[in-house]
Amino acid sequence: MSWGTGQHLPPGLPRASLRKSASMYTEIQRERPDGGNILTHPDYIDGNPDLIKPKKLLNPVKASKSHQELHRELLMNHKRGLGVDSKPELQRVLEHRRRDLLIKQKKEEEEAKKLQSPFEKELLKRHQRLDQLEKEQEKQEDHAPEFIKVKENLRRTSTVTGGEKAA
Predict the structure, then answer these.
(1) Which of 12, 64, 73, 116 would give a disulfide with 120, using CB separation of 3.0 to 4.6 Å?
(2) What is the pLDDT of residues 72-127, one digit of tens each?
(3) ∠92-110-116 over CA atoms, to 5°?
(4) Would you say 28 and 13 are in contact if contact means Cβ atoms under 8 Å apart?
(5) Contacts for 63-72 with beta carbons within 8 Å, 24 or more apart?
């Protein structure tokens, strides 16, 4: 690795040492004194008894009770072989009960359908047909022009008033 013209040499390194070295980084590390290090060592490590040694600050998240309990639960689950995705026992039991309840309701509905008499089935079919016809009539009335709706309303009022006069 040779330095050409226009390139700057690192301070304190002779040009010859750069040509001989296999790695520029290792050579720079050998040449630099300890004071050139980015991280400086704190004064309290020297053991001066007059200095007050700083205490490590507590992380407020890790210090909270809820975080400690959650961490404890995760450790216990890990020891038991449960994954993180597994659910607590209470949640599993509740879901199982809900599932059983839904299955029971479906079975009851199926049994109720089986136990219906032919007369009840026919009534249900007629009721569904009437509902369907009512919906179709509402759709047709919504699409009808305004003057037809007004005309039908006038007919109804004239027949009602005519019926009251005759009575």
Answers:
(1) 116
(2) 988 888 888 766 566 778 888 999 999 999 999 999 988 888 887 888 889 889 99
(3) 155
(4) yes
(5) none
Structure-token pair, residue 108 = 């009851």
Tokens representing 127 are 């009721």
Give residues with Cβ within 8 angstroms of 141, minimum separation 6: 149
Q: Quick check: 51 and 43 in contact, CB under 8 A?
A: yes
- The DSSP call for residue 32 is S
Give residue-wise pLDDT tens across range 135-163.
988 887 777 677 787 888 888 887 766 66
pTM of the full structure: 0.26
The answer to whether the Cα torsion of 153, 159, 163, 164 is positive or negative is positive
| Residues contacting residue 21 through CB under 8 Å, at least 6 positions apart | 1, 27
